[in-house]
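Section 4.2 – Deliverable D4.2 (structural model, holo form)

The reporting period included a commitment to supply a predicted holo structure for the target in complex with zinc ion. Inputs used:
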Amino acid sequence: MSCPICKKSTVVEFRPFCSLRCADIDLGRWVTGKYAIPAVDEDSIDEAADAIENNNQNIH
Ligand SMILES: [Zn+2]
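Output (structure tokens):
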């Protein structure tokens, strides 16, 4: 099984993702309604992670 976000091997602790980072990205997509990203590459992952981090800072 591979991570649905970045296609790396999953880690049991974070299944079905490879890391907490990818789990947060997936959650962020649902929350923000941006699940229609056509192609996920490293750059878009970083951008999504940054957006999530910014959102979290705004919440707190
Ligand atoms: Zn991943």
